[in-house]
Amino acid sequence: MTPATLDDAQLYRVTDAIRLLPLSRTVIYEQIRNGRLRSVKQGRARLITANGIRAYIALLEREAEEAA
């Protein structure tokens, strides 16, 4: 299996996002609940958009810069 990249898809299941982000399943759902990681519902599935992942990474970078 090759490592996942953000260019492969536009929507990711939480299990796919775990491979892209160094976060546990619990933390990913916590970030979604807190509005820090954008997601959409498709039926019963919770999907995270590629743009949501990019925005989350940008948010983390901004927070790191502000803390420095």
UniProtKB/TrEMBL annotation:
Residues 11-58 form the Helix-turn-helix domain. It comes from the Bacteria. InterPro entries: HTH_17. This is Helix-turn-helix domain-containing protein. It comes from Nonomuraea phyllanthi.
